[in-house]
Each structure stands twice: as structure tokens, then as C-alpha cells.
Design a protein that fits this description.
Low-confidence stretches of chain A: none
Largest interface: A-B, 29 and 29 residues
Number of strands of chain A: 9
Mean pLDDT of chain A: 95
Shape of chain A: globular
Oligomer: homodimer
Number of domains of chain A: 1
CATH architecture of chain A: Sandwich
Chain lengths: ~120, ~120
């Protein structure tokens, strides 16, 4: 299966609704369209990679400077580090993380994904 | 650290010389500039993701149809599957695989990376 990012994002109807686009070595490749502010959260045991395919994403941190990513840039948020992704306009993201990672990490909110969705 | 793919590829001087650009959860994100034919090989226990950032890559398989990837497309080669990446013109790749993965898999050749290189 070839995954074409531009085509795959068309299958995602809502913001902050990551879809699994690939699986390897116990890790997931997820795609998400995001806009606005996500919840503050951390993942106790999982590092998380944010790669921006289109648009711009700012990742806020409690104790260190924000990181802003544009298309073609990535950043790894280490396990245990509280963060809050924010996008002023729609941004199209690719995420790498362990398959068992919950999107809102230690927080349960209305943004928590209850059922895994996959790119077809 | 923000990794900008376009800037990072400028640090890579040779073809088929993957550089580690990120590490998370025991996995490596590697960047490579490739052109020409790589060796036939497989990775006994590691799935391998090929994402094309720029250019076009064909992955040949012994028993199934070739897969051709253009910019913004990815494919996962499952563990144990023999494959041969080929690029007629220069192609800029992102790879995702376990940190211990050897680039030529089961094969030792002049293309085998002996010492890990990192994007600065």
C-alpha cells in the first residue's frame, strides 16, 4: 500500500482526529488535520514526533521555549514533557509514536480518541 | 531541536549514506540522498518505512509488483521481504526504522554503513 499524504488527509473529516496511516515495529504513523489549541498533556513513556506536511504548528512547553514547525520540519517531544500543540490556521501533521499511545496522553477530555481510525 | 529536511539534506555529501536525524522510542529517523540502484537485501526483524520528500523512488520486490513513490508518499516494507530501492534521478528520502537496523540488512557490501552519522 502506498500512502499519499495529500489524498489521505481528504479522508479525515475533523480536526484533532488522528488516523493511523501505517504501522511498523509496534509504532504508528498517524495523520491529523489540526486547527486551534489542543489540551496540555504529556505521554509518560512515549516520545512523539511531529512532522508538518502543510501549514504551521507551534508546540508550547511549560518550561522551555515554544517550537514552531513549518512544512518539511519535525521535532521530537520526549516522554514525560508536557506540551500543547497550537495551530492558528489548519495544519496537516504526520505523527510517529508507539501504537499504544493515547492522543491526549495523561488527560481524558472530549478530544481523547476512543476508537482508532485508519486511513483506507 | 527542529529538523528542517531541506537544510538537513545539505549536510549529506554522498548518495546511499543515511544520516540519523532523530531518535524516539528506540527508533531512528534517517535521511538519505539516493541515486542509482541499491543492493538487494532484507531486514530479518525490522519493518522499514520509506517516505519520499523530493524526487521519485522505486522499490523493487522479488515476488510482488514494484512500488513507486513520489514526494509526499510513503510505503512500509515488512520485515523479511527482500527489496531493492532504485532512483533514476536524485531522490531525497526519510526512513523510519529501529535504531539497530543496518542499511544493507542481511548483506555486507561497500554500501554498508560502518559508522553512524548524524545530522548536526
Amino acid at each position: 500500500m502506498v500512502v499519499d499524504l495529500d489524498e489521505a488527509y481528504e479522508q479525515i473529516e475533523s480536526h484533532w482526529d488522528p488516523h493511523v496511516a501505517g504501522e511498523l515495529n509496534g509504532q504508528h504513523v498517524k495523520l491529523a488535520r489540526v486547527e486551534g489549541r489542543f489540551d496540555w498533556h504529556h505521554h509518560a513513556e512515549s516520545d512523539e514526533l511531529f512532522f508538518v506536511h502543510e501549514g504551521e504548528l507551534t508546540i508550547r512547553f511549560r518550561e522551555t521555549e515554544d517550537v514552531t514547525l513549518r512544512a518539511g520540519q519535525f521535532h521530537v517531544v520526549p516522554a514525560g514533557v508536557e506540551h500543547r500543540p497550537v495551530a492558528e490556521e489548519e495544519c496537516r501533521l504526520l505523527l510517529f509514536e508507539p501504537a499504544e499511545t493515547r492522543n491526549t496522553g495523561n488527560v481524558e477530555s472530549e478530544k481523547t480518541v476512543q476508537e482508532e481510525k485508519h486511513i483506507e
